[in-house]
Write a structure and sequence with these properties.
heterodimer; A: 506 residues; alpha+beta; Porin; twelve-stranded antiparallel barrel; three-stranded antiparallel β-sheet; B: 119 residues; mainly beta; six-stranded antiparallel β-sheet; 11 strands; 53% strand
Chain lengths: 506, 119
């Protein structure tokens, strides 16, 4: 089969998979109604466990029983209000890159993304994009300052506040590091006349966020959050006040209901609260539905509350969209140890040659679009690679690259998460011999400078609630750095973003 | 100010009641709606994690007032929340007494109407 046919088939397959995933209706995953009681269960347990008089404990439980949003969540329409009120404990940002830099051997990414993991990321990738090698690369990426802040503060969001007003901490936390290793050392067979290497170290990188305000906790968004609370927050509170008044229209009926449900909860054995509290709260919700839900004034107030929730979330989502649309500008430096092709007989033309190390500088520009969690992102990379050590008769600049990548989130799959597909193209101008010297390939002396065009389609499949993603990519190159022929290859990897887990950790 | 077992509060005439809403994480996105008070000050933010509002009870006994506080745990469009996040609402009277109510997600939007009776 010709290369063009292979490429067409592979891309068609990947695109069809993506279209199928995008077409699936995901909101179809109905939330369990009893999840609405999770917060109330925690709050009641805390209140009963805290020091205080019996009357104070009764007051706490009575107040928690009067949190009407819990009942609106439990009794409300499954596909609208409940899913809005329950939320999710996931991280779906597309702008993070736990894996190796695009220039690294074995990387599955053609373009570098703007944000490294806030704390720590890990990636195991198999591939190679423009090189003639197939590498297995293990990459650790992390941010030292943020990791220390995370250790000092038990919560992910809370850790953001540590040193938030300290310019030094803020500056240092914009700098993150990465280190990559080959899963198997490339010994560099002596028969190829290259000095052998037994080191598995394949590269190190440093990334500095020049401009990045994508985090909702960033102080730049404080005024928007204050405005939200003062406008839609106040309107929502007012509709809630009217709902409360409607429920309390008959004071005796209301007081009797609160007292009855409260005494039921207070009578539960303290060593069985975890099992019995959710059931008691569900019984309270059903009792509330029987006594109050169908009252005309409650239904009218409920309509206003539902509208208030929708309007509040819509306005808040507009702020989140503004945050996501802000550009990211990042500068990434990578030091890369070159590897020898694993499946080609490359031989140095002079004895005892060593492969020169490479340095790469990449400017990353990233911008999101409107559309909430389903909004795409566009990333542009401009980079240059040079030989780390000079050599007679060889220029220092090895290549220049320009890369454009389009990321598109797909529909969420129940019990899996939200996959994403990306399409990227790269123009690579190879200005010097890729290995820094003339070599023979399968016995023929080659000189391989010139331009290379690369196109990649990649599907990233998350594993729900784990912070793990599996990127699967197909890459077409007009040629590789050493081989003149067109090249099609598949890449697969596994990445782990500790931020996702830490964000959910208690 | 004194809390009743029912969760309602007794306050003295013209007593100042201060609501201090503090979120474990930032930003604090609490909203207020206070009705039936002699007067209420504006919402202030001594820090990114805190909002404060003070209201003065009416002078006549048997007066009734309410203050609803909404809290918001959402961190993105998907409604992502930190399970360890928490809002605490401390209600303190100028003539003594205080009470602290806490909110844990989910739900990611929650609220409470506090009702005050002037003795």
């Amino acid at each position: 089969m010709k290369h063009s046919h292979k490429v067409t088939s592979l891309l068609s397959l990947l695109t069809m998979c993506a279209l199928c995933l995008r077409a699936q209706d995901t909101a179809s995953a109905p939330s369990t109604p009893t999840e609405c009681f999770k917060g109330a269960v925690t709050d009641i347990k805390n209140a009963l466990g805290a020091p205080g008089t019996d009357d104070e404990k009764k007051a706490h439980v009575s107040l928690i029983l009067r949190r009407w949003f819990v009942y609106v969540c439990y009794l409300g329409p499954v596909d609208s209000i409940r899913s809005k009120l329950l939320g999710k404990a996931e991280d779906k940002r597309l702008d993070k890159q736990p894996g190796a830099s695009a220039s690294a051997e074995g990387s599955t990414s053609l373009a570098d993304k703007g944000s490294p993991p806030w704390l720590l990321g890990f990636a195991l990738e198999h591939g190679g994009l423009t090189q003639s090698t197939d590498g297995n690369t293990i990459t650790f990426r992390g941010n030292l300052a943020n990791s220390i802040r995370g250790l000092l503060e038990s919560s992910y969001l809370g850790s953001y506040q540590l040193g938030a007003n300290d310019p030094l901490v803020q500056s240092i936390s914009k700098l993150s590091f990465g280190v990559s290793f080959n899963a198997v050392a490339n010994p560099g067979p002596s028969a190829q006349a290259f000095s052998p290497s037994t080191s598995t170290f394949s590269g190190v990188s440093a990334t500095y966020e020049i401009y990045n305000h994508r985090d909702p906790r960033d102080s730049r968004w404080a005024r928007k959050w204050d405005q939200l609370a003062a406008t839609k927050g106040m309107e929502l509170a007012r509709s809630y006040t009217h709902f409360d008044a409607a429920v309390r229209r008959d004071p005796k009926q209301f007081d009797d209901w609160v007292m009855s449900q409260r005494d039921t909860i207070l009578a539960l054995p303290t060593d069985a609260l975890d099992q019995q509290l959710p059931n008691a709260l569900e019984a309270a919700a059903k009792s509330f539905a029987e006594q109050f839900w169908s009252l005309p004034e409650v239904q009218k107030a409920l309509s206003d509350v539902n509208a208030g929730i929708s309007q509040y979330i819509e306005t808040e989502d507009a702020v989140f969209a503004d945050i996501k649309r802000t550009p990211i500008v990042t500068l990434d430096y990578s030091f890369v140890r070159q590897g020898l092709p694993s499946n080609q007989a490359v031989t140095a033309t002079q004895p005892a040659q060593t492969l020169p190390d490479l340095s790469n500088l990449t400017l990353v520009l990233e911008r999101g679009f409107a559309g909430g969690a389903k909004a795409p992102e566009l990333t542009f990379n401009a980079s240059g690679t040079w030989f780390s050590t000079p050599a007679p008769g060889r220029g220092r600049v090895r290549d220049a690259r320009a890369t454009l990548q389009f990321d598109l989130p797909l529909k969420e799959i129940q019990n899996v998460g939200r996959p994403a597909i990306s399409f990227s193209g790269q123009f690579l101008a190879l200005l010097e011999e890729p290995l820094g010297q003339k070599v023979t390939l399968n016995g023929v002396t080659i000189s391989r400078t010139g331009n290379i065009g690369v196109f990649q389609a990649k599907l990233s499949i998350p594993i729900k609630d784990s912070g793990v993603k599996i990127p699967v990519a197909f890459t077409y190159a007009s040629r590789t750095e050493l081989v003149k022929e067109k090249d099609v290859r598949g890449n697969i990897g596994i990445t782990f973003d500790l931020d996702s887990l830490f964000a959910k950790a208690k | 100010m004194k809390v009743r077992p029912s969760g309602d509060f007794d306050v003295e005439p013209v007593e100042n009641i201060t609501f201090t809403v503090k979120r474990k994480n930032t930003p604090c996105k609490a909203g207020f709606d206070c009705q039936g008070w002699q007067n209420c000050g504006s919402v202030t933010s001594p820090g990114a994690d805190t909002k404060v509002k003070t209201c003065t009870a009416v002078a006549n006994s048997e007066g009734q007032s309410t203050c609803t506080v909404t809290v918001d745990f959402r961190n993105d469009e998907a409604g992502t929340f930190d399970p360890s996040d928490q809002y605490s609402v401390m209600i303190a009277g100028s003539k003594g007494g205080s009470f602290t109510d806490t909110f844990t997600p989910p739900p990611v939007l929650n609220a409470q109407t506090y009702t005050f009776f002037v003795e």
